[in-house]
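An instance noted here:
***
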Amino acid sequence: MEALEALNLATLHVASAGMMLVGGGLWVFDIGSMAELRGRFRAAIGVEDREDKGADEEMEEWLATVLKRKEGKEKRRSKDGEEEEGR
């Protein structure tokens, strides 16, 4: 029972130390929100900051093409299955 309590306390201490380190890092780099953190991270790795609307439209187009291909494959499979049953 004492071992379980010790493990529980050690886990709590490690988690609290991690939260303090993350909070200290955010304070040092003067980051106040997730949007600001995301912007700084994207700038650091060199990703251009596109508007979300353009990215959403691009994702919708990609998803539509993927779904059309999937639908076409399913139709071909069902046709092939019907032809085999007819034999």
Q: What stands out?
A: DSSP finds three helices and no strands in the chain.
